[in-house]
Specification:
Layout lengths: L1 H14 L3 H19 L4 H16 L3 H19 L4 H17 L2 H10 L9
Helix pairs in contact: 1-2, 1-3, 2-3, 3-4, 4-5, 5-6
């Protein structure tokens, strides 16, 4: 239950622009979940998602990209490509890549995830 509460609190803190506090809490929660549950547990991946969200809000797009990239790979392995959490991770990674100006990687990711429209180049 504590992990759920801290995850919700991270989101709430980020919403009221308490980004530094949200980041510290998100980093702490992720570290604890990795230690207790392992790197690929769904709750750990949710915590990674929360931390990446805060990093994006702080303009730390490269750091968010690395975390989102890892989270996406793990969710694909565990949940499959079509699971809603996997698709959410792909969306988050695309946001990071947009901020970083990596349109080629976005195109490849959208193709891989089956999102490109016929005729898109």
């Amino acid at each position: 239950m504590t992990g759920l509460i801290s995850g919700d609190l991270v989101v709430d803190l980020a919403a009221v622009r308490a980004h530094d506090r949200a980041r510290r809490l998100a980093e702490d929660t992720l570290a604890r979940r990795r230690r207790v549950l392992g790197d690929s547990h769904p709750d750990t991946l949710s915590s990674a998602n929360n931390l990446a969200h805060v990093l994006r809000l702080q303009g730390e797009y490269e750091e968010a990209r690395r975390l989102d990239d890892d989270t996406l790979r793990r969710r694909e392995d565990i949940l499959g490509e079509n699971h809603p959490d996997t698709m959410a991770s792909a969306n988050n990674l695309i946001i990071d890549l947009l901020e970083l100006g990596d349109s080629e990687r976005i195109r490849r990711l959208e193709e891989r995830m089956g999102r490109s429209e016929p005729g898109d180049q």
